[in-house]
Specification:
single chain; alpha/beta; 6-stranded mixed β-sheet; binds adenosine-5'-diphosphate
């Protein structure tokens, strides 16, 4: 059922059906990947985001891609890491699940995820990558989907490579 790739580099350059944005609850832009996506998409994206009224942590919303090569942006709000005893793992898994649910509802067949919560939100990389891969693999058995895990830096790339190597043959 589809396939999974680790893709190094900048998510805003990918010509996929949807890229996922690690947004904040306002959906009105921010730093990191959120800022990069808004800069590359142009002002139309912010205008559409303003109509959405925000998004709670662990949920997702979909918009157009505007000037991006991707047709859609799926905005999801990852948890801020607060030590791990505040529901962070469940919320992070929910981000991946809800993004895939929206993708399926919109006929999306290729999707690219950044490492949600692993930048400013401080989620430990190895744990976050494990949740990303486990959740996507479980959900993807229900739909045919081409999934990119985008690694913006060497640490993220290494974490995905170690996680997928541990899973070799099961993906
Ligand atoms: P969060 O607030 O959810 O932690 P960040 O944007 O700070 O979101 O970081 C999430 C991840 O996205 C980090 O691994 C960061 O290195 C990565 N990232 C930043 N810019 C880009 C980009 N242009 N493409 C892909 N990933 C990116």
């Amino acid at each position: 059922m589809g396939s999974t790739l680790i893709t190094p580099g900048d998510i805003t350059t990918l010509a996929v059906d949807a890229i996922v944005n690690a947004a904040n609850e306002s959906l009105l832009g921010g730093g990191g990947v959120d800022g990069a996506i808004h800069r590359a998409a142009g002002p139309g994206l912010l205008a559409e985001c303003r109509t959405l009224g925000g998004c709670p942590t662990g949920q997702a919303r979909i918009t157009g891609g505007y000037d991006l090569p991707a047709r859609h942006v799926i905005h999801t709000v990852g948890p801020v890491w607060r030590g791990g005893a505040h529901g962070e793992a469940g919320l992070l898994a929910s981000c991946y699940r809800e993004s895939l649910r929206l993708a399926a509802a919109h006929g999306i067949t290729s999707i690219a995820f950044p490492a949600i919560s692993c930048g400013a939100y401080g989620y430990p990389l190895t744990e976050a990558v494990d949740i990303a891969v486990t959740t996507v693999c479980a959900e993807r058995s229900k739909v045919t989907l081409f999934v990119h895990f985008v690694a913006f830096d060497a640490d993220t790339l290494g974490a995905y490579q170690r996680r997928l190597a541990a899973d070799a043959g099961k993906m």
